[in-house]
């Protein structure tokens, strides 16, 4: 039987690795830079989560499949995307949205599996979903996507809440997983499409 949690985790790793590789291409990094950026984007959030949960060594050290997926994604990106400037601008945020949805749910599931309460699990899902992207954006000298105006972290939080509530109400694991992923993804894609954002906290400087 397929371990769907593990399968989605590897898919999220590939998607976030693609996101990191595309970001590196936009900033004209060398192959090593592309590999580093793809790696920290793909496994950064999960590494922070595992360190906080005390489940060490972290997941990618225990299972080299994650590194293999990252390497394969970087190689395919080099082969298929030869001219990063010609890649449509929406590809990076859309790839990031899929990674956010996948990793958020995986993070919540892993936190619940070690006996944490629902609220803490949602926070762990948020860290898993946004951690790698924050590291990627900081290395690219950009304001992290999670801190920009469009709804980002909110999508992760809502997805995590949907997962925990679905399980609490007795929903099947697969239904809860897909429901949470779809919710987070739809919210994030809608924010990208229509530039949805939360009200800004704007303190006016006295003249």
From TrEMBL:
Cellular compartments annotated: Cell membrane
Domain of life: Bacteria
KW Cell membrane (keyword) present: yes
Any one Pfam family match given in the protein's UniProt record, by short name: Gly_transporter
Domain Glycine transporter: 7-81, 94-165
Alphabetized UniProt keyword annotations: Cell membrane, Membrane, Transmembrane, Transmembrane helix
Residues that span the membrane, as ranges: 6-25, 32-52, 64-81, 120-139, 151-169, 175-196
Cross-referenced InterPro entries: Gly_transporter
Membrane topology, from the record: Multi-pass membrane protein
Family from the record: Belongs to the UPF0126 family.
Name recorded for this polypeptide: Membrane protein
């Amino acid at each position: 039987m397929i371990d769907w949690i593990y399968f989605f985790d590897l898919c999220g790793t590939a998607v976030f690795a693609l996101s990191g590789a595309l970001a590196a291409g936009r900033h004209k990094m060398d192959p090593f830079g592309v590999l580093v950026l793809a790696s920290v984007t793909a496994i950064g959030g999960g590494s922070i989560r595992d360190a906080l949960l005390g489940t060490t060594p972290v997941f990618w050290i225990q299972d080299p499949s994650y590194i293999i997926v990252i390497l394969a994604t970087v190689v395919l990106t080099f082969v298929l995307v030869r001219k990063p400037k010609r890649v449509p601008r929406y590809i990076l945020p859309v790839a990031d949205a899929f990674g956010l949805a996948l990793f958020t749910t995986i993070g919540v599931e892993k936190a619940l599996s070690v006996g944490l309460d629902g609220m803490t699990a949602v926070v762990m899902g948020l860290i898993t979903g946004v951690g790698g992207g924050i590291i990627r954006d900081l290395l690219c000298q950009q304001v992290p996507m999670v801190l920009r105006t469009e709804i980002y972290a909110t999508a992760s939080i809502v997805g995590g809440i949907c997962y925990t509530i679905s399980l609490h109400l007795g929903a099947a694991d697969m239904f809860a997983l897909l429901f949470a992923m779809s919710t987070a993804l739809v919210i994030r894609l809608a924010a990208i499409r229509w530039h949805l954002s939360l009200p800004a906290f704007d303190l006016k400087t006295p003249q």
